[in-house]
Amino acid sequence: MVTVKGLQQRIVKALETGQDPAPLLKELAELRTKNATEAEGETTEVESSCRVCQHRERGAIDKALQEGRSLRDIETEFNVSRSTLSRHKNHCLNLRAIRLVEDSEG
Which domain holds residue 9? Predict the structure, then answer.
């Protein structure tokens, strides 16, 4: 059974070994969409105020961003502005990756 924690550990290992974590990040986004819950129950201040982080289709939005789809297409599909998507991509997705690395080290 694939778990969020297991995927997080695999992502950290991929980052540590210089492998591309994109496929694992996509899988994580799909799993979170399926579960429709945040596994850790913890959010940063940025995430708690981010419209994408609070969006009911967050996993699908994250997956679309990770696949490199255009912000315009994602904006149209999910009714979220390009500026909001850009902020989420640059801040929240990066914070999540950093947190995964920190959690694996601590």
Answer: 4-105
